[in-house]
Design goal:
Largest interface: A-B, 37 and 25 residues
Number of helices of chain A: 19
CATH architecture of the largest domain in chain A: Alpha-Beta Complex
Structural class of chain A: alpha/beta
Number of strands of chain B: 0
Strand content of chain B: under 5%
Helix content of chain B: over 70%
Structural class of chain B: mainly alpha
Oligomer: heterodimer
Largest sheet of chain B: none
Shape of chain A: globular
Number of domains of chain B: 2
CATH superfamily of the largest domain in chain A: Spore Coat Polysaccharide Biosynthesis Protein SpsA, Chain A
Strand content of chain A: 5-15%
Number of helices of chain B: 8
Shape of chain B: elongated
Helix content of chain A: 40-55%
CATH topology of the largest domain in chain B: Helix Hairpins
Radius of gyration of chain A: 22 Å
Chain lengths: 422, 234
């Protein structure tokens, strides 16, 4: 049964006019008029070239744009495309736009897209970031093809990025989801992904929407849902990563939206992750790891200073979260000079697992636990930057792999913490 | 003369014996009430202690910051303290009831005042508990936000917020108890005003150089940051 409670009557009428579809492409927007057109062109081209016989629809879920974003999407004519590709769809490529609210919320946007997918009985669905000016038709096809043709349930993206971009992903989210759920998804948190109609219905029915706040970012939740429910997952290379929203650059916000979702999901998925002992690679279309090593100026000194000050100032908070031995080690390294400082992987993994267990046990406000992790992340980031300052792409990949293995090796430690034996 | 004295003494002795005979049953009733009261208070204490342990009240108090205060004051755990407090309040209540049975003039009024005071005492304790909880929450929130925003002296900020909230809570508690409420209100006003004035002076005069350095660092850092890339965490 489709979750129609959040869909407006007008939107439902438009969906009914479209009827059942094979392919659904969701584009969540908010004031993206300047950047959305290339993404729409890529979507149209991807469908025309790869799925000309399939029934397809583009759903724009808009969060109250004031710059005419929905008009840009609805006005993007497919005729130019026909001429440039010399190809035609055998079906009408529909486009529908709906305003789900007057302010943006990625949870409501995704929920709208999932509900539409369920109502239209779409077989393969994808969400494309409206800021993806680099995405190409092949990228859209790469996301949809595994779901539509090969019956995968979830396709995560792989992006080309600078070796120092996405350190939270490479040092926490990827290694931890890999160690817990046993599948090596490199980008568990992404704004572009594809999923089957079955997974859409399943995720909708999990009813997390009413419990979570409007700030809840469901992307990581969808990945975890796919991993924990035994869905068939794979990865597809999409090229350069779309620009990150300014809000997600704020470390505390990013921590809430990603680590918060990961930690909170551990309670409901305990039966699944507690039984996994090793990780497996997942099928991947294109390169599995692609980083650039161009020079980048980063204020490393400030990272170290903020770590040291954070560990010393937050002693009373960290004492409630961490074990005494871990806290003592952190306090020891916090006073080291910059050239001797090293936040080694074992200490980092232990600290993260102790944070996860404390989050589960709610030793204090859960939001405060996440905020207390921020200074520690800065320390780990400093070490990552120093260790990989002159590293090649392969060496960076090896270092991340070693960290992942450390997360897997220490997983029994998390289980002991979880079960209260430590 | 002699007969009169003996007669008066006999009458006085009779009256004493009569009064004592009147008082004796009441005294026995009072002792029974006190004993039963002790028994009831004891049972209430044990039940309350079990409930609080089951509800992990100590952990809640730890989060509220009440446990730390008790430890500093060398007092028992919050569960033990609340249990003992309720025991004594219940038993004193029964003792008062017993005393009122004696029918001693003047005491009755005090007993009534004691029972009227009990609800205010409970409300005061609730205000104190939740006040400490709120003070602890906001102090930690300020500490974390200051550390993550790289503000100077995060602990000082946190302690200041905690102190202001606790002073405010204590003034509310004393007002509720009716203990020197005017004095407490005045003291709170003076203390709060002094803190604000102190902060103003500290920032205006004492922290002039610090503020100058902070602003300089802030602006120079912003300029520096503009030249440096900021890698996204995601």
């Amino acid at each position: 049964m489709a979750d129609e409670s959040i869909l407006t009557d007008d939107f439902i009428r438009q969906l009914i006019d479209v009827g059942e579809v094979d392919i659904l492409v969701g584009v969540p927007t908010h004031n993206d008029a300047k950047t959305v057109e290339p993404a729409i062109r890529a979507i149209q081209a991807g469908i025309v070239k790869t799925f000309p016989r399939e029934r397809a629809v583009i759903i724009n879920a808009d969060g109250g744009s004031s710059d005419g974003t929905p008009d840009v999407i609805m006005g993007a004519s497919i005729d130019d495309l026909h001429r440039s590709f010399n190809g035609y769809t055998l079906r009408t490529l529909h486009a529908i736009s709906t305003r789900y609210a007057n302010s943006p919320s990625s949870a409501t946007a995704l929920r709208t897209i999932l509900a539409a997918a369920e109502l239209l009985r779409a077989r393969a669905c994808t969400v494309i970031c409206p800021e993806s000016d680099n995405i190409e038709a092949e990228g859209v096809a790469n996301l949809l093809r595994p779901v539509y043709r090969d019956h995968f349930d979830f396709v995560a993206p792989i992006y080309r990025r600078h070796k120092f971009e996405g350190v939270l992903l490479s040092n926490l989210l990827y290694p931890m989801t890999r160690a817990l759920f046993g599948q090596r998804i490199r980008e568990p948190y992404a704004s572009e992904f594809a999923f089957s109609g079955r997974l859409a219905s399943q995720f909708l029915s999990q009813n997390k929407w009413s419990e979570e706040s409007q700030d809840y970012d469901p992307e990581l939740g969808l990945t975890i849902s796919a991993l924990s429910d035994g869905c068939r997952v794979c990865q597809a290379f999409l090229g350069t990563r779309p620009p990150i929203k300014r809000q997600s650059r704020d470390l505390v916000h990013a921590m809430r939206q990603t680590v918060g979702v990961l930690f909170s999901s551990l309670e409901s998925t305990f039966q699944v992750w507690s039984s996994k002992t090793a990780s497996q690679p997942v099928p991947t279309l294109g390169p599995e790891f692609d980083v650039s090593t161009d020079p980048m100026r980063i204020n490393r000194k400030q990272l170290k200073e903020m770590f040291s000050a954070g560990v010393l100032d937050l002693e009373s908070v960290l004492r409630s979260i961490l074990s005494s031995s871990t806290l003592a080690e952190l306090q020891q390294i916090a006073v080291l000079p910059e050239d001797e400082f090293r936040f080694h992987p074992e200490l980092w993994v232990k600290a993260v697992y102790e944070f996860a267990a404390s989050y589960y046990k709610s030793v204090m406000s859960r939001d405060h636990i996440l905020q207390a992790l921020v200074p520690l992340y800065r320390g780990r980031m400093f070490t990552f930057l120093v260790e990989n300052r002159t590293s090649s792409a392969a060496e960076v990949g090896n270092n991340i792999e070693n960290l992942c293995l450390e997360f897997e090796r220490l997983k029994p430690y998390l289980l002991e913490l979880w079960n209260g034996r430590k | 003369m002699r007969d009169i004295i003996i007669g008066e003494l006999t009458q006085a002795a009779h009256e004493i014996f009569r009064d004592f005979a009147h008082l004796l049953p009441r005294l026995i009733v009072m002792l029974v009430i006190v004993f039963v009261g002790w028994l009831v208070a004891y049972i209430i204490r044990e039940i309350l202690r079990s409930i609080l342990r089951f509800a992990k009240f100590d952990r809640l108090s730890e989060r509220a910051g009440a446990s730390q205060l008790l430890t500093h004051a060398a007092l028992p755990t919050p569960t033990e303290l609340v249990s003992r407090f309720v025991f004594w309040v219940a038993w004193i209540g029964f003792i008062m009831l017993g005393v009122s049975v004696l029918g001693i003039g003047g005491l009755q009024e005090h007993v009534e005042r004691f029972f009227l005071f009990l609800p205010r005492l409970f409300v005061s304790l609730l205000i104190l508990f939740f006040g400490l909880l709120i003070a602890s929450f906001f102090a930690r929130a300020i500490l974390l936000a200051s550390v993550n925003a790289n503000l100077p002296s995060p602990r000082l900020l946190s302690i200041s917020v905690r102190s202001i909230i606790i002073i405010f809570v204590l003034s509310m508690v004393f007002e509720e108890l009716g203990v020197a409420d005017q004095t407490m209100l005045l003291a709170f006003g003076i203390a709060f005003g002094a803190v604000m004035l102190g902060l103003a002076i500290a920032f205006g005069i004492g922290g002039k150089d610090l503020a100058q350095r902070f602003l300089e660092n802030r602006f120079s850092r912003d300029k520096k940051m503009e030249r440096e890339d900021e890698p996204s965490p995601l």
